[in-house]
Amino acid sequence: MTSRLLPGTQIEVVRERADRGRIRHVLLDFDGTVSLLREGWQQVMIPLVVEVLGNTPRGRGEAGLDETARDYVAESTGRQTIYQMIWLADEVAARGGPRREPEEYKAEYLRRLHERISGRLATLESGEASPGDFLVPGARELLDELRGRGVKLYCASGTDEADVRREAGLLGVADAFEDRIWGAQADYRSFSKKMVIERLIAENGLAGPELLTIGDGYVEIEEGARAGGITVGAATAEAARSGRADAWKRERLIAAGADLIAPDFREADELLRYLWKK
């Protein structure tokens, strides 16, 4: 596969889509695609997984636990947290440990994550920080330009829905989606990004290329591609905000089926001109 950069940009065209120019609806992920409030969540989840598995009878001294954790987190990025914790509970049992309820692991993960991000939320709430401090570069402009093109925007996240809605409000982007923000539910079987995509296609009578999916997670890109939609992988270097694609994300997003890779949305104009063929 030979890719190319759009002239004068860092936007990589992985697969040429002759059927572009027909987009009517756009589905975006939230964390890592629009929001940076939860930047570093992998550095919370991976050590938790290693710690829990390392405390099982057959996990003590097991080589490669860190790699196992990293690989699973990479593959499951974009899924509801509870599914990641179901996997963890199963892996504990497979190593001879007592299988705790996945909700217990999720509660501990969220506790540790909150310790990491609570200061960020506090500075936004107090006005000490501005939304732009915690948005992916160019994300607000991307949303505005998409709305200007008359498309409907949707947000689907693996994070609990109440948290996504709260954080979207703090970042000043909730208005772009109106009431079309969805996230993880207490009944986790009632929500998935696959279900959202299938619903959007069915309710709006969409042909594949009429749906654009943008995200930094394997799951939404894989499901968007499977539905025949156009997919943009957001390979955001979340901590550095360098404007260069994060190599780890890029590799996995291409494997998931991304048609394009964007390091962020500072070049949203060029990206949308390409997608709309004008």
Write the layout of secondary structure elements.
Layout: E1 4-5, E2 12-13, E3 25-28, H1 42-54, H2 65-76, H3 81-94, H4 102-126, H5 139-148, E4 152-160, H6 161-170, H7 174-177, E5 181-184, H8 193-204, E6 211-215, H9 218-226, E7 230-234, H10 247-256, E8 260-262, H11 268-276
Parallel strand pairs: 3-4, 3-6, 4-5, 6-7, 7-8
Antiparallel strand pairs: 1-2, 2-8
Description:
The chain is globular. It is α/β, with parallel strands linked by helices. Helix 9 (218-226) packs parallel to helix 10. The longest helix has 25 residues, at 102-126. The protein starts with a strand and ends with a helix. It has eleven helices and eight strands. It has two domains: 4-36 and 135-276, HAD superfamily/HAD-like (Rossmann fold), CATH 3.40.50.1000; 42-126, no CATH class. It has an eight-stranded mixed beta sheet with strand order 1-2-8-7-6-3-4-5, sandwiched between helices.
Quick recap:
The chain has 278 residues and is of the alpha/beta class. Helices cover 46% and strands 12% of the residues.
CATH topology heading of the largest domain? Rossmann fold
Number of helices: 11
String of helices and strands = EEEHHHHHEHHEHEHEHEH
Task: Provide the structure class.
Answer: alpha/beta
Helix percent reads 40-55%
Seen as an oligomer or otherwise, the chain set is single chain
Radius of gyration (CA) equals 19 Å
Mean pLDDT: 96
CATH superfamily of the largest domain: HAD superfamily/HAD-like
Largest sheet: 8 strands, mixed
Strand content: 5-15%
Low-confidence spans: pLDDT under 50, at least 5 residues? none
**Assigned CATH architecture of the largest domain:** 3-Layer(aba) Sandwich
Biggest sheet strand line-up: 1-2-8-7-6-3-4-5
Globular, elongated, flat, extended or rod-shaped: what is the shape?
Answer: globular
Number of strands: 8
The total domain count is 2
